[in-house]
From TrEMBL, chain A:
<dbReference type="GO" id="GO:0043190">
    <property type="term" value="C:ATP-binding cassette (ABC) transporter complex"/>
</dbReference>
<comment type="similarity">
    <text>Belongs to the bacterial solute-binding protein 5 family.</text>
</comment>
<dbReference type="InterPro" id="IPR019546">
    <property type="entry name" value="TAT_signal_bac_arc"/>
</dbReference>
<keyword id="KW-0732">Signal</keyword>
<dbReference type="InterPro" id="IPR039424">
    <property type="entry name" value="SBP_5"/>
</dbReference>
<feature type="domain" description="Solute-binding protein family 5">
    <location>
        <begin position="93"/>
        <end position="446"/>
    </location>
</feature>
<dbReference type="GO" id="GO:1904680">
    <property type="term" value="F:peptide transmembrane transporter activity"/>
</dbReference>
<protein>
    <submittedName>
        <fullName>Twin-arginine translocation signal domain-containing protein</fullName>
    </submittedName>
</protein>
<dbReference type="InterPro" id="IPR006311">
    <property type="entry name" value="TAT_signal"/>
</dbReference>
UniProtKB/TrEMBL annotation, chain B:
<dbReference type="Pfam" id="PF00528">
    <property type="entry name" value="BPD_transp_1"/>
</dbReference>
<dbReference type="InterPro" id="IPR035906">
    <property type="entry name" value="MetI-like_sf"/>
</dbReference>
<dbReference type="InterPro" id="IPR045621">
    <property type="entry name" value="BPD_transp_1_N"/>
</dbReference>
<dbReference type="GO" id="GO:0071916">
    <property type="term" value="F:dipeptide transmembrane transporter activity"/>
</dbReference>
<comment type="similarity">
    <text>Belongs to the binding-protein-dependent transport system permease family.</text>
</comment>
<keyword id="KW-0472">Membrane</keyword>
<feature type="transmembrane region" description="Helical">
    <location>
        <begin position="224"/>
        <end position="246"/>
    </location>
</feature>
<keyword id="KW-1133">Transmembrane helix</keyword>
<protein>
    <submittedName>
        <fullName>ABC transporter permease</fullName>
    </submittedName>
</protein>
Length: 529, 312
């Protein structure tokens, strides 16, 4: 295993960690994969997912709910370790080692079989799985960044060759979606050109297989009979798609689910009076929520007005009204626990009405026409917009709330969607995140203006730092770069960071869940208690 | 009768084409790009443009509609933009759940509402008639989604008599899963049907042919069932036929609240994600159902009432 780029490895130098992880790799390698003991048999785990699956090809994956299933049915070189701190561990690999900034060698465990007679997993499969993401112009090819090629050096050995260093390889690429290894033989048979196989995986390599998918009803995963590794905890996992957290809670209370996410509005109720034989756990979340301002909108071109708005927004009040005090104010885009998380922000969470008024005066007073704030038609989002509306009224700025459905909302700032971006002024926004800071900052570069950078923030220093940070292997230096980038965003006046939200979950005492530090479930490792 | 049937069928086709076209125009008028929704945030503008082209979204709207209806004539409703599965398959997978739900809802509502209305008419101004009247108005005034939520909390969470979510598997399990949603969707129909049948029955009971039957000394039971109810039920049949659209919209809420599969839940998600092929497929099918239901109710009316039959 190679250097762990997560912040907990701070203090361990890269070479030192390499040495340590090589030992861990050897220890893992020496464990025969057939010695595992079956967990309790005959068990079915009922869980919910916020959406139904719609893509099971890891090379073309979209959205976390698909990756939750992929984690169970495929194997990767490395995987996220369940726990409270971000870490990765070897899975299909005996050893993964970064020999220099652009070369990563790996050696697979022997005996990992693909189902359906598609043979043993080899380095050829690894090469095929990773290179097809680039070759077929996958929408998620960015995960593989500067991959040049994978060199096969033996039946089980190979080298990942990058065009330039790419730090997110360790935090996202290998342990997340595109890190899954598929069978070259099976995929070629199924697709002819090795492209997207969509919802029909031709072979499985994980502890579970996709037994049944009843669209809109459930996904049924059962034990993979050909799996020789550590036996999974359940005979069957049933994933029920439910878009609404309240429905999940009701389903849990009625006994239809064994594990579910809990909405922040219900959290205090459940903490006071949890359902029978239930454990409630609170986790932080990686999402980031902010108020953005379109710097090119004529009403908002004056930085003093934008700063007045920044200082007029009182984040703890928003936490109280929209998140029932169950979420904490954010200091930036990057959540605590990740490289680049800032300890504090420039504008204090409570804001400062006096400063806001002073900036407003410099801007020549409040705009004559009311400003607009766009928001998604979800309760929390509209509550945020309404609180901001009231807060800005305190300094004399009138704000009109525009509530939009998801189809309209998610294209509002895109130049390809007509002129709506020009009219956009303020916006409540929320992006999902993976455990690498680049995943957050990549949307705010100049080349993203009019695509996902709806504030139209453009800063050469930011763009340069964003590029350099991808290649920086020194944790402290990399963290400092991301601190600076968030400072630049805040100094532009176009951003008011609100929160990373929170991810509470509840589960039966009969279940031992396995969660990432952001409470994302790793069903593969769930076990009966 | 045959000419009437053919004429209605022709009109039905026009209604379906108009409804699908108007709804599609509305969908195109609201902002949102299916290609962006499919590919996610990390797709390049080039890839988005390529996908739009592959989906035919770069063509003019009339051309898109012409292609859609051309494909419909060949039995092809297109492909789902997310899973690349056939829309026909997806709609047909979900349709039975919705049909099952609305059929069960209206069946139990009719089984209870029609006899209740009949009983109330025959026992006019008794305390049972008054109680039935109050209950009918109460159930009519409660929206189905409110009833769904309370039924869920009372019978699934509180008493745990029924499952809260899903549609179940196999006959017994499916029936068990169907009880609460069907109760929620059907409850207001009990009131509607009881009130309509009561009013209609009172009117029919005073008609000449019923008085004539009584004069001939026929048994009261035969008079009520064979002569009065047969005619009195006609407005209820018309109401059910026209009410299929309402039932479908109530099913949307029930499917979302009970996390059941079905056309309603499918449409909601498809509109949200601007999944045009699914929306068009669902609208085509639901409009077809409404048109067929109206046609059937007209034909049943004609079958039950010779006066209607003569006027066809």
């Amino acid at each position: 295993m190679s250097a762990n780029p997560f912040p907990k490895s701070k203090g361990i130098d890269r070479r030192g960690f390499l040495k340590g992880s090589a030992v861990a790799g050897l220890a893992a390698a020496s464990m025969p994969i057939s010695t595992a003991v079956w967990a309790q048999s005959g068990k079915v785990l009922h869980i919910s997912s916020y959406a139904d699956i719609d893509e099971l090809d890891p090379g073309f994956y979209q959205n976390g709910y698909n990756v939750d299933v992929m984690n169970c049915i495929y194997s990767k070189l490395v995987h996220y370790v369940p726990g409270r701190e971000w870490d990765t561990s070897l899975q299909a690999a005996e050893e993964v080692k970064q020999v220099d900034p652009t070369h990563i060698t790996f050696r697979l465990k022997k005996g990992i079989m693909f189902t359906g007679g598609h043979g043993e997993m080899t380095a050829e499969d690894v090469k095929f799985s990773f290179e097809r993401v680039i070759k077929h112009d996958s929408p998620v090819k960015g995960d593989w960044g500067p991959l040049d090629h994978v060199e096969v050096t033996g039946k089980y050995e190979g080298t990942i060759v990058l065009k330039e260093p790419f730090e997110p390889l360790w935090t996202i690429t290998l342990p997340y979606g595109t890190g899954c290894i598929v069978s070259k033989k099976a995929v070629m048979e199924a697709t002819k050109d090795g492209g997207d196989f969509g919802m029909k995986p031709p072979a499985f390599s994980g502890p579970y297989i996709l037994d049944t998918w009843k669209p809109g009803q459930y996904v049924k995963l059962t034990r993979n009979p050909e799996w020789k590794g550590t036996k999974p905890g359940y005979d069957e996992i049933r994933i029920l798609p439910m878009d609404d957290e309240k429905t999940m809670e009701i389903a849990y209370e009625s006994g239809d689910l064994d594990f579910t996410a809990v909405s922040l509005s219900s959290l205090s109720k459940y903490k006071e009076s949890p359902p029978a034989k239930t454990t409630i756990q609170e986790y932080p979340s990686l999402y980031y929520v902010w108020v953005g301002m379109n710097m090119e909108n004529p009403a908002l071109t004056d930085i003093n007005l934008r700063k007045a708005i920044q200082y007029a927004i009182n984040v703890p009040q928003i936490m109280q009204a929209a998140y029932f005090n169950q979420a904490k104010p954010a200091t930036g885009l990057i959540a605590p626990g990740l490289t680049g998380h800032r300890e504090s922000e420039i504008v204090p969470p409570e804001g400062d009405l006096e400063k806001a008024k002073a900036f407003l005066e410099k801007a020549g007073g409040p705009p004559i026409e009311p400003l607009t704030i766009d928001t998604l038609n979800a309760t929390t989002w509209t509550a945020i917009a309404q609180v901001i509306q009231a807060q800005l009224a305190q300094i004399g700025i009138q704000l009109k709330v525009n509530v939009q459905d998801s189809g309209s909302f998610w294209t509002i700032g895109m130049e390809s969607e007509g002129d709506r971006w020009k009219k956009m002024q303020l916006i409540v926004n929320r992006f999902s995140m993976l455990p690498d800071p680049y995943y957050a900052t990549q949307w705010f570069t100049t080349d993203q203006v009019g695509i996902w950078n709806w504030e139209r923030f453009s800063n050469k220093e930011f763009d340069k730092l964003n590029q350099e940070a991808l290649q920086e292997t020194d944790h402290d230096k990399r963290a400092a770069m991301y601190h600076k980038m968030q400072d630049l965003m805040e100094q532009s006046g176009a951003y008011r960071f609100l929160t990373h939200e929170a991810s509470p979950v509840m589960f039966r005492d009969s279940v031992k869940p396995a969660l990432r530090p952001d409470a994302r479930p790793l069903f593969r490792f769930f076990k009966p208690a | 009768m045959l000419f009437y049937f053919i004429r209605r069928l022709g009109l039905s086709v026009i209604v379906v084409v108009l409804a699908v076209t108007i709804l599609n125009v509305m969908l195109h008028l609201v902002p949102g790009d299916p290609a962006v929704m499919i590919l996610g945030p990390r797709a390049t503008p080039e890839l988005i443009a390529k996908t739009r082209e592959a989906m035919g979204l770069d063509r003019s709207f009339p051309m898109q509609m012409a292609i859609f209806f051309g494909n419909v004539l060949r039995g092809d409703l297109g492909r789902d933009v997310f899973t690349d599965r056939s829309v026909t398959t997806i709609v047909m997978e979900q349709l039975p759940y919705t049909l099952m739900l609305i059929t069960a809802s209206i069946a139990w509502a009719a089984a209870l509402g029609i006899p209740l209305g009949c009983y109330s008419a025959l026992h006019r101004n008794t305390w049972l008639d008054k109680i039935t009247g109050v209950l009918s108005v109460s159930t009519i005034s409660i929206p189905s989604f409110v009833m769904a939520l309370y039924a869920l909390l009372a019978f699934a969470v509180g008493l745990k008599w029924f499952p809260a979510v899903g549609a179940g598997e196999g006959f017994a399990d499916s029936f068990h899963h169907l009880v609460l949603p069907a109760f929620a969707v059907g409850i207001s129909w009990v009131g509607y049907l009881a009130r309509i049948v009561r009013a209609s029955m009172l009117e029919v009971l005073g008609e000449t042919h019923v008085r004539m039957a009584r004069a001939f000394g026929l048994r009261e039971r035969k008079i009520v069932v064979a002569y009065a109810l047969r005619i009195a039920v006609l407005p209820a049949v018309t109401l059910i036929g026209a009410g299929v659209a309402y039932l479908l919209s109530a099913a949307v809420f029930a499917e979302v609240i009970f996390a059941r599969p079905g056309i309603g839940a499918l449409i909601v998600k498809a509109v949200d994600s601007r999944n045009y092929p699914i929306v068009l497929g669902c609208v085509l099918v639901t409009t077809g159902i409404i048109v067929v239901a109206t046609l059937i109710s007209d034909l049943v009316n004609a079958w039950l009432d010779p006066r209607v039959r003569e006027n066809l």
